[in-house]
Amino acid sequence: MADKNRVGLIVPSSNINMEDEFRMVLPKEIKLHSDRMRMRRVTPSELKSMDKEALNAAVRLSDADVGAIVYGCTIAITSRKQGYHEIVRKRLEHATHTKVIISAAAVLDAMRYMNMRKIAVATPYTKAVTEAEIDYFKKAGFEVVDYKYLGIADNLKVGNLPEEIAYKLAKKLDISEADGILVSCAELPSINILDRLEKESKKTVISTNTASLWKVLKTIGSKKKINGFGKILSR
């Protein structure tokens, strides 16, 4: 029987950030269990190859009777055709009989929930990968008023960046017409700068990980409000 106090997380093999940020935010009674899909460089070919491993990783996590499973990689979904998040979710849920949260879909849901129709986006990705993600957001009904990227393909390098890099990148965005800011990428360390960005910008700020955490808590039925990481978690 699924235990709502156990959460499964699937991350790329080179991800060294998402598990830490999840454990930092999740209530103490909720245990995190993770599995991995092989990927070192954020390129279309490696992302497609990695995605094929998601099913087996999800099945392994379901053996632990987790209450929900998170597919923790935004760009693996947003680099594909529009609506791919639903294809993956249905495939994994069918195989595991467990609620599955796709991080990319959680981002879309969180932005809608926070009324972020016009968005400014910061990513660590290369130009081509970032533009694929921007196109995904536009086709999902969002207006992207500005975006900035770091141009990094090496996923491990992204995870080793100090959080101030994400902060400085977001500060470069033109947010004059934006409803909010998205710091995209589960591997980009940013959890501790989001609240500061919100206060300084007077805009809603979410990241891949806070959107995913919000969706996790909602899915398992937790009503806890968590302060210090942006309005999405404290609302």
TrEMBL record:
Signal peptide: none annotated. InterPro entries: Iso_Racemase_Enz_sf (IPR053714), MaiA/AMDase (IPR026286). PANTHER family: BLR3294 PROTEIN. This is Asp/Glu/hydantoin racemase.
